[in-house]
Amino acid sequence: MKKSEKEEWFNRIVTESSNRIKRICRFYNANLHDQQEVLINIWKSLERFRGDSAIGTWIYRIAVNPVCNTAEISYRCIYGLNLRFI
Most buried of 1, 2, 9, 12, CB within 10 angstroms? Predict the structure, then answer.
């Protein structure tokens, strides 16, 4: 994948999916740093996207994985709970 093509794809993903990324991170009580990390991971992983799943599904996994790396949040990731409201 050429750099210009990668940049075009990335810009399109950011434009179309920024609200989805924010909602995912907000659900798991993540902060702005986590949202930025998701965008960095999307950029790094973009060349490996094979198209086996929808782009939204792929973005969801990339967004949830780093957010689930802390012990506090891993319970929510496993059980799909938002503990702020319990």
Answer: 9
Q: Rounded to two decimals, what is the model's pTM?
A: 0.71
Residue 44 has pLDDT above 80, yes or no: yes
42-67 b/e with 16+ CB inside 10 Å = b? beeebeebeeeeeeeebbbebbbebb
Select from 3.30.160.20, 3.40.50.880, 1.10.260.40, 1.10.1740.10 the CATH code of 3-85.
1.10.1740.10
